[in-house]
Write a structure and sequence with these properties.
The protein contains 6 helices and no strands. The chain is an all-alpha fold. The protein has a domain of 103 residues. It is flat.
Length: 153
């Protein structure tokens, strides 16, 4: 298993202009994400790794969507949404990280609904309605944490 630092360096290498078209390598990096990434989110390395990880999921979503593999595309955006939900629900994370994650979830749900609404199969339209309802229920359970600010802001 790769350390978080090595994984982050590998991801940064993928983002270099001569590597950023090898999406199979990016899939491998997402699959090899160290479990410890979630344990280090309150430090700079962990935060940077999460940012790259989220961006990689979005790039894979766009890549697979462009290739016509909608199920795979949607899977990566769902994965990013689920990871952020896990952060929000974990009592070990700071309020600031949870608040940031909630705000990111709002952006991701918009992307997910737009993705569904651009599909022609009626199942996707139903999926978008279900996503909205589930997102609203989840956000209500967070007692408006995404709308509160610390004294430092």
């Amino acid at each position: 298993m790769m350390t978080l630092h090595c994984w982050l360096e590998s991801v940064k290498t993928w983002y270099q202009p001569n590597h950023s078209h090898d999406f199979s390598a990016l899939v491998s990096l997402i699959q090899q994400t160290p479990l410890g990434m979630m344990d280090e989110l309150d430090n700079e390395t962990g935060s940077e790794a999460l940012a790259y990880w989220l961006d990689a999921c979005f790039r894979l979503t766009k890549y697979y969507q462009h290739q016509g593999y909608n199920e795979q595309a949607f899977g990566y955006i769902q994965l990013s949404y689920a990871k952020l939900q896990a952060i929000v629900c974990d009592a070990n994370y700071s309020s600031e990280l949870k608040r940031w994650s909630l705000k990111k979830l709002d952006r991701i749900i918009v992307a997910m609904v737009e993705f569904c609404q651009h599909q022609t199969d009626p199942q996707w339209q139903q999926e978008s309605i279900q996503l909205i309802n589930l997102h609203v229920a989840f956000m209500e359970s967070q007692q408006h944490l995404n709308l509160s600010y610390s004294a430092n802001n």
